[in-house]
């Protein structure tokens, strides 16, 4: 079970749509049904042939005027015009977006709306990831200047 799904199971039903039928949640036949049965629709999947543009006009309509859409996956998952137009017209409750159709640029209209939260798509940009990335570099530099074997030697053919 995904971390997001397990957090959603606190005393309430957690609705989930997943392309695998062995997923241990209440099953919706498609993302449109999921939106119709949800208050909040969180997109956190990779853009594949089966997921690109999974959210368009029909899904946004199914989510409804009070619904919340959060896209923390990739911009290609959502028809980019839909959350923008619906937010401007007040046809959705709110949107939380950190992935956009033309990343990294968010549509200008979204910056003036009170019902939209925007953030850059930088999931990998954490202190821990930078520390982990510099470990082998620093280790190799120390080894090189100490005439010791390099930690991650690359053999060129």
Put the structure in a nutshell.
The chain is an alpha/beta fold and 157 residues long. Helices cover 29% and strands 12% of the residues. The longest helix has 19 residues, at 127-145.
Tell me the series of helices and strands, N- to C-terminal: HEEHEHEHEEH
- Compute the number of helices: 5
What is the terminal-to-terminal distance?
44 Å
Number of strands: 6
> Looking at the chains present, what oligomeric state does this protein adopt?
single chain
Spatial ordering of strands, largest sheet: 3-4-5-6
Mean pLDDT, rounded to whole units?
Answer: 79
Shape: elongated
Proportion of β residues?
5-15%
Helical fraction: 25-40%
* Spatial extent as radius of gyration: 21 Å
Structural category = alpha/beta
Major sheet, described briefly? Answer: 4 strands, parallel
Unreliable residue runs? 1-15
Description:
The protein has 157 residues and is an alpha/beta fold. The strands form two sheets. It has a four-stranded parallel β-sheet, with no helix packed on it. It has a two-stranded parallel ribbon with strand order 1-2. It has helices at residues 3-7, 31-36, 57-63, 81-88, 127-145, and strands spanning 15-16, 26-27, 40-43, 68-71, 94-97, 116-118. The chain is elongated and about 65 Å long.
Considering the chains and any ligands shown, give keywords for the structure.
6 strands, two-stranded parallel sheet, single chain, disordered N terminus, 4-stranded parallel β-sheet, alpha/beta, elongated, 157 residues
């Amino acid at each position: 079970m995904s971390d997001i799904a397990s957090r959603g199971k606190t005393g309430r039903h957690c609705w989930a749509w997943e392309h695998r039928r062995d997923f241990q949640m209440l099953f919706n036949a498609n993302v449109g049904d999921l939106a119709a049965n949800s208050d909040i629709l969180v997109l956190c999947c990779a853009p594949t042939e089966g997921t690109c543009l999974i959210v368009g006009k029909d899904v946004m309509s199914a989510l409804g005027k009070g619904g919340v859409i959060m896209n923390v996956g990739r911009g290609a998952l959502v028809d980019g015009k839909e959350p923008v137009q619906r937010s401007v017209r007040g046809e959705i409750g709110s949107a939380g977006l950190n992935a956009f159709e033309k990343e990294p640029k968010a549509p200008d209209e979204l910056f003036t709306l009170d019902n939209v939260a925007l953030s850059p798509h930088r999931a990998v940009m954490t202190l821990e990831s930078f520390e982990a990335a510099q470990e082998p570099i620093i280790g190799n530099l120390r080894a090189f200047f100490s005439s010791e074997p390099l930690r991650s030697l690359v053999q060129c053919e």
